[in-house]
Amino acid sequence: MSGDSITLTAGNATTYQWFKNGNILTGITTKTITVADSGSYTVRVSNSYGCTKISNPVAVSYAAQPPTWVTASGPLTICAGSSVTLKTSAGTGYTYQWYKYGNPISGATIRTLIVTTSGSYRVQFTNASGCTKKSGSKIVTVLALPAAIITPSGPTTICAGDSVDLNANTGAGYTYSWKKYGNVIPGATAAVYTAKSAGPYKVVVTNSIGCSKASATKTVSVITCRKALVETIESIIYPNPVLDFLYFEKPNISKIEIRNLEGKIVVLNEMGNTESINVSQLSPGLYVAVIYTKTEVVTERFVKAEK
Q1: Can you give 173-234 as a three-state secondary structure string?
Q2: Which of 62, 146, 162, 252 has the highest CB neighbour count under 10 A?
Q3: 81 and 147 in contact (C-beta within 8 Å)?
């Protein structure tokens, strides 16, 4: 095959002259020659008495080696979660085996290879004549993604007219793009986004090397309030701290919600005309009582004491 060679050796004689396709090979007068081209080779030998003889021809045939190029579908430096496709030439009867760090990749026997991990990759071709050759290496580097986390500044259930700050994690060289319902929010490119309307929010964080990651969704809910949902100046609940039942000094109560500091309703009483609510099942900590009357909605914080 192309790139290989074969050694031809004549019998014992005094002088030698080699021929290729009947043409003299000038200067080739040794007993053995190394042949690296296709053709019909003969040798004329002479003994010390001047007798000469030409050998029977030996036909040498070389099959062409397959090509050795590999191309990439894009940059060889990629972000985690992305890929680059390596591709080599097609040919009738070609077979392929891809390697990573010199080791065969199981099942990687077609002309393309989708790469998602760092490493040194090459392919070995075999053509229809059985000739094989390995390509040069392609070095793929995979870069780490940044973290992408949203931390609300307070409850994500807010009254109409109020807002909550959504804080993305920070890092050197980070840039941000905020989305709502999967759509980019124009101009929302800071690490903090102030959400005033209901919906699912995400932030896409891009680090200094250009790799991006989208956060999990934070959903903001907006409740309908009769008045601005503000904390009372004078206490209307007792006892505070409380162990079991929380009592209210407010007439015409229609509904009571007990919320944790994330805004989630953990106890609800919609019976109407209520004067108390059982909070004994709550874990110790700080909570907000949201009291609805016919004319207003007021809030007050209280502490659930530990028994």
Answers
A1: CCEEEEEECCEECCCCCCCEEEECCCEEEEEEEECCCCCEEECCCEEEEEECCCCCCEECCC
A2: 146
A3: no
- What is this structure's pTM? 0.56
Same domain, 165 and 183: yes
The mean pLDDT values, 10 residues at a time, for the chain of 307 residues are: 76 94 94 89 92 91 74 96 95 92 97 98 90 92 97 91 95 97 97 97 97 97 63 76 90 88 87 82 91 85 87
Domain for residue 65, yes or no?
no
Per the structure, the complete domain to which residue 202 belongs is given by 150-223
Element (H, E) at 43: strand 39-46
> Does 106 map to a domain?
yes
In angstroms, rounded to a whole number, what is the distance separating the alpha carbons of residues 168 and 176?
Answer: 8
